[in-house]
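Audit log entry. Action: structure prediction of a protein-small molecule complex. Ligand: calcium ion. The ligand was supplied as SMILES and no pocket hint was given, so placement is left entirely to the predictor. Protonation state taken as written. Sequence taken verbatim from the request; no trimming, no tag removal. Recorded inputs:
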Amino acid sequence: MRIICTGTLSAAALVALASLGAAQAGGEPRRPNIVMIVADDMGFSDMGMFGGEIRTPNLDALARSGVRFTNFYCGPSCSPTRSMLFSGTDSHVAGLGNMDEWVAPNQRGVPGYEGVLNQQVVSFVNLLREGGYHTYMAGKWHLGKQPDQIPRARGFERDFSLLDGAGSYFDMTGLSASSPRSIFTEDGKYLEELPGDYYATKTYTDKMISFIESSRADGKPFFAYVAHQAPHDPYHLPDDWLRKYEGQYDVGWDALREQRLARMKELGILGAEANLAERLLYVTFWSDLAPVARATVARKMELYAALVENMDYHVGRLIDYLKRIDEYDNTLFLFFADNGAEGTDVAHMIAGTPGTRDYLFYVVNWSQTHPNAWGRPHSNVSYGPGWAQVSMTPFRQHKGWLAEGGIHCPLVVAGAGVKRAAGSIDDGLVHVMDIAPTLLEIAGVEPPSTYQGRPVQRMQGMSWVPMLAGETDGPRREQDWLGWELWGSRAIRQGKWKLLWQPRPMGEDCWALYDLAKDPGERRDLAAEEPERVQQLLLLWDEYAKVNNVILPNRTPFETLEDQLPPRVPVDEGYPPLKFKKPFVPPKELPREDRSER
Ligand SMILES: [Ca+2]
């Protein structure tokens, strides 16, 4: 790798660096600390400043001081997104062309489909570390468990990491029989046990504060990556957080989607004409649910909301600490979610078949199934598609899919070097793979073409430095485009246009075209009206697939989904009347049977 001198930095980087205010002893501008906080499976509209009713005062304060991005994209699930985050390039290049858990038979052994962050890319964290940054990580990794794949190997000087994709928040109980005990590392060593008072969100925050504290005397800048598990299922909460939202979701998911939509327009997150996605075909009208079902289902959202607020609380602790040690003003903050909200009941998907090893594993390890035990150790609850579509208001579908609800995520950038109006909103097209080249440019480090003697793939992401310096609204021009593929679903976005292919029942096994400026809810397929545009975008898809060696999988986790779901029918409010009419009561003033005559 090469560290470039300031003489070769772009003009924008120089502006950003020079504007930091602080100066080191030698007169060199001091590079900013970088704090990158990732929420796992949190929805686009959950935090207050994006239109949610969940209390997130600390994230909201960050948003008020910085910029909210309303066109930020990730992959449709955890590990593909994280591979793009660290490599600055597409997941099919970086090793996560498919999730490790679902690599298809025809993808096995193919470079780009290793299921871990592979050696054809360099983690930007290695480059930051060699460029003079302290590099710290606390939280979920999900990019490989072998010694050459763990956070220490990919650039983190200090770490406290959950290597799995999910697990208990209280102990090492894993989610499946293939990973029965969660694997953790601390400073590159595999852990035998967790700290006595372990609670994921709190412990990750404590560890990060201790890492920063341990080396702050030497004056080097630090990169701090806090990869929260929250609010990924299972929803686990400390006792005093369990009742925080009691009764607040009795209003139901239909009314709440409308409320959020209105609030998002008020805040300017959405334009005044933005529409709401069609109801998911397997979500019931709230009004159609029996009272006991409503109470049970609302409880799930109460727990989710408390989990998001709890995460916000711990984000606040980290920010308070940075203020206390006088580093807040010299720190650049990024906060984002890694993919759409989770609408699949993963526990049921893994363990739902009696007689399987995972069913037995769940019976033994995840036995607390009564609603009164939800949130406590060994309970395993998630909120399902009805609430996931609330979290993703106004978008369609959820995590796992390439409709906007799977990939369109909240992003806040604030702090040192951000020369934009406080509280502003940017609708430029930005992608998670832009973060690596952006942070390297801010640190004055150039991405190399070889690393430790091996060639590495170029970063496809585009730096945000000019945008953060206030020179542009986004890194992409009108002709630039983004592509996606996971589990056979495919998408291309160029400007306001999106071409999308999804299998039945979530799509129609064919390409659909959407104008996202007018139709963020993806309700109106314009493919038949705009055949030339479809052809032009298809050429981009071919280019995307070729450049990134996209191999469509011959097996997918959703291959039997159509058999399991009800057929798609048009949704009409109040239809059929049989289910929605109120019971008939004879008018009081009309004559009734005279019982005295009997
Ligand atoms: Ca995730």
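Audit: result stored. The domain at 2-481 is CATH 3.40.720.10 (Alkaline Phosphatase, subunit A). The chain has one domain: 2-481.
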